[in-house]
Amino acid sequence: MNMLKKAFLCLAVSCGLLMAAPAESLAARTGIVDVNKVYSDSKAGKAADEHLAKVQAVLQKGFADLEKRMEKAGKEERERELAAGRMVLERQMQIELAAARAVVNKLMLKAVDKWCGKDGVAMARSQVLDFGSKLDITARIIKDMDKEKVKFADLPVVSFKSDKK
Predict the structure, then answer these.
(1) Do 102 and 48 form a contact (C-beta atoms < 8 A)?
(2) 13 has a pLDDT exceeding 60
(3) What SS3 string covers the chain?
(4) 22, 66, 68, 84 from 157: Cα distances, Å
(5) Which residue from 76, 146, 155, 157 lies 20 to 30 Å from 44 (Cα-Cα)?
(6) Which residues are paired to 31 by β-bridges?
(7) What average pLDDT does this structure show over 152-162?
(8) Which residues contact 116 (CB under 8 A, 6 or more apart)?
(9) Which of 42, 24, 40, 35 is nearest to 132 (CA)?
(10) Is 59 exposed, middle or buried (0-12, 13-18, 19+ CB in 10 A)?
């Protein structure tokens, strides 16, 4: 009976080791990325912030020009034109924000894809409840992204229909 217990124990330990091996290899191929940190700390994320600040300045100047042009208009027409102009410029800002994020996302996904290779897994930190610090690959992703050149769209040109007169 003692021999049977030893054989069973040996079998159990062997099965445990076999089951643990895939878990370890999966953990070695799993990475967690703090996307917010990528946006705030990478050169691309900082460049996006700078680009968006310039866009906002252009749009604000366009709105200020519209306000100045509408000074002599009647109150109703002025309010209507300023509200319409504000809507157009806010929509343009949303488009510019989405475009800048797309540039940063593209670089981040390229770096993540490079890290993952054929069989790796990367997840956003916001989607993971808990993880060991060894799984955090954010710094590596930022380092790879910082090697790339970033190009954003040209700054918008603000023009309203009555500008053509």
Answers:
(1) no
(2) no
(3) CHHHHHHHHHHHHHHHHHHHHHHHHHHHCEEEECHHHHHHHCHHHHHHHHHHHHHHHHHHHHHHHHHHHCCCCCHHHHHHHHHHHHHHHHHHHHHHHHHHHHHHHHHHHHHHHHHHCCCCEEEEHHHCCCCCHHHECHHHHHHHHHCCCCCCCCCCCCCCHHHHC
(4) 56, 13, 17, 17
(5) 157
(6) 122
(7) 82
(8) 29, 31, 122
(9) 24
(10) buried
Single-letter amino acid, residue 163: D
Q: Which of 31-35, 63-67, 70-74 has the lowest mean pLDDT?
A: 70-74
Using a CB cutoff of 8 Å and minimum separation of 24, what contacts does 22-26 make?
26/121
% of the chain with per-residue pLDDT over 70:
80
pLDDT in tens, 96-155: 999 999 999 999 999 999 999 888 899 999 998 888 888 999 999 999 999 999 999 898
Residues, the chain: 165
Q: Are 108 and 41 in contact (CB under 8 A)?
A: no
